[in-house]
């Protein structure tokens, strides 16, 4: 069947190629060490699950308002206020996953041909921007800068069609974190050129050193910022599909129109569980963070002990993005060959936009045992295939 012309602009994912191969090998009986999956290996805390069960028993099984249950919108606004961010329920929309919040935000913000500035390597924003008729403009950030966007590079990329700057720190795939002081010149440039900011803050509870700045904490920035967050990473709730965006109240009304026309609303009992997640005990988050930090230290140390691999120590999220440049193969060759010979699944850096090639992404949202096994297998692979 012929699809719309714009579908041919949506790039196929090289990530999926490797994942498809991993599944095929697994079906054939090969043991695979999964280092590709970007999802917490922890279970959702029991009290959150219990809240969903109770909501179902109470009969919370119908549609909710498109922007979300009023009580959840309030709980999210309170959660932000506790972090020093001024927000009311009217500034919040609840969505089925942070991904859908990003999609609604882009659809509500962009006119055809509007340019979206995306520091790269980056997560899968390109497809979303293109689907809603925008034009992604990648700004390649260097490993030397710790994969952080610098204001000069941003200024060089801005044109009269620039509409929105998309920030994602802590970053997927690099794990880079940007402090308030580092963000400041970028935000100043956004004001000078009248850009909106879309800040994907999904990993903001996973910061191991330093601090992650938040555009909403800067005076005057709330009027041009859409901050996206969710429950997938912070509360190990990927399968629940639960996210939210914070933006000026009039923009939330526009985003709600997109949600109304697409998914209607987020699942009602899932929203009830989210209230418990935000208002209940938070010690789980700190425990999870401490465990991720231990794993990060282990994987960075292990990778840097392998000749030909260089790995920066990321300050946040749960990914490492080591350089394999010295090994003389493309990231896709490396990942395919590593998977076939040693059964370790990793994602080629080429799948994360300009600047990704020469790197691979490994997730440490997996057990310490798997991490140690993966390092040992990668070492064997490098020694055997790169002699
Ligand atoms: C940077 C980034 N943003 C958003 C998401 C999506 O989160 P959700 O599961 O809430 O849709 C992910 C998931 O991997 C991510 O890595």
UniProtKB/TrEMBL annotation:
Cofactor: pyridoxal 5'-phosphate
Domain Aminotransferase class I/classII large: 31-376
One GO-annotated biological process of the protein: amino acid metabolic process
Broadest EC class assigned to this enzyme: transferase
Family of this protein: Belongs to the class-I pyridoxal-phosphate-dependent aminotransferase family.
Protein name: Aminotransferase
PANTHER family, sorted: ASPARTATE AMINOTRANSFERASE
Residues passing through the membrane, by range: none
Subunit annotation: Homodimer.
Annotated source species: Hadarchaeum yellowstonense
PROSITE patterns given in the database record: AA_TRANSFER_CLASS_1
Pfam families assigned: Aminotran_1_2
Alphabetized CDD domains for the sequence: AAT_like
Origin organism lineage: Archaea, Methanobacteriati, Candidatus Hadarchaeota, Candidatus Hadarchaeia, Candidatus Hadarchaeales
EC number: 2.6.1.-
Keywords: Aminotransferase, Pyridoxal phosphate, Transferase
GO molecular-function terms, A-Z: pyridoxal phosphate binding; transaminase activity
Database matches in InterPro entries: Aminotransferase_I/II_large, AspAT/PAT-like, NHTrfase_class1_PyrdxlP-BS, PyrdxlP-dep_Trfase, PyrdxlP-dep_Trfase_major, PyrdxlP-dep_Trfase_small
Keyword Disulfide bond set for record: no
